[in-house]
Q: What sequence folds into this?
């Protein structure tokens, strides 16, 4: 039995070491690629090359230099990669703002590392316990699900941030459109200058602008934003911006109406939350104030009855 436990612990240690070595190799490749890009960009800045046509040749040289050192992104397309990083996980990564292929690979490595490290820690703690197999299975399950739980919390927080930032985005759109800016200029200003006010939606608008500048349609660029966060109001706003981009026309009045509707919805939601809090506080008051109230009001009567009964026994 001791030999079996020793073999199990040794295999877990070897698996963890292999995962750490693979992660270290990938990090080293990323750092090397980053230094290469920085060196090429510094050379371009020193030479004064600013146009895309002039800088395309050095960038092609950079890609050729890093072609043999590419990250193992093909792992995501294998059967194990699709099982460990399923479509739901990729949607969660996109909702968290980590929708790139590199982020998906990092999530895959984090999931494997957690699924191996936690059983190793459990094996070191319960090396001689009678339920070692049960604890190992529980640790493997928790380690496998831990990255997804983190993603769910981050995605829920970002979704709540989107709901809070949406009225401000509508007001900014109406304000900037009222100054005479076009839709492209308005979105560029929102994406570049309002990141400290709207950290989530400003970043999403910036990504949509980048996709549009690369040749994607406005409908596809903003459709992704509404699909990722699954917010009906955001979907309505994106469809309104798409219609403005296609047909033009006066947009201040529709945006004002849309903003008023968002504020009414927020007021109704706040009233609903207040009503729920009142119901919950009723239970708290019953559990805390009612015993004290009974002691204060009925306590003297109980004491008088007890004293009367004691006097009768004497």
A:
């Amino acid at each position: 039995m001791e030999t079996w436990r020793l073999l199990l612990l040794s295999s877990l240690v070897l698996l963890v070491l292999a995962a750490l070595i693979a992660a270290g190799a990938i990090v080293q490749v990323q750092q090397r690629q980053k230094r290469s890009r920085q060196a090429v960009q510094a050379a371009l800045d020193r030479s004064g090359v600013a146009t895309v046509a002039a800088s395309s040749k050095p960038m092609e040289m950079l890609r050729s230099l890093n072609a043999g050192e590419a990250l193992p992104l093909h792992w995501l397309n294998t059967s194990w990669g699709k099982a460990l990083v399923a479509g739901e996980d990729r949607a969660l990564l996109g909702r968290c703002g980590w929708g790139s292929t590199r982020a998906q690979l990092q999530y895959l490595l984090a999931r494997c590392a957690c699924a191996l490290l936690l059983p190793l820690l459990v094996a070191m703690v319960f090396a001689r316990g009678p339920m070692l197999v049960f604890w190992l299975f529980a640790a493997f399950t928790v380690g496998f699900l831990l990255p997804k739980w983190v993603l769910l919390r981050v995605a829920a927080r970002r979704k709540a941030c989107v709901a809070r930032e949406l009225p401000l985005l509508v007001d900014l759109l109406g304000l900037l459109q009222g100054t005479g800016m076009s839709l492209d200029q308005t979105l560029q200003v929102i994406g570049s200058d309002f990141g400290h006010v709207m950290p989530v939606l400003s970043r999403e608008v910036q990504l949509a602008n980048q996709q549009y500048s690369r040749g994607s349609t406005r409908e596809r660029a903003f459709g992704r934003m509404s699909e990722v966060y699954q917010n009906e109001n955001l979907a309505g706003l994106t469809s309104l911006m798409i219609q403005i981009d296609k047909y033009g026309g006066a947009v201040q009045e529709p945006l004002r109406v849309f903003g008023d509707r968002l504020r009414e919805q927020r007021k109704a939601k706040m009233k609903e939350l207040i009503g729920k809090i009142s119901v919950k506080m009723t239970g708290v008051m019953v559990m805390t104030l009612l015993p004290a109230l009974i002691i204060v009001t009925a306590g003297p009567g109980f004491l008088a009855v007890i004293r009367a009964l004691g006097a009768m026994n004497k």
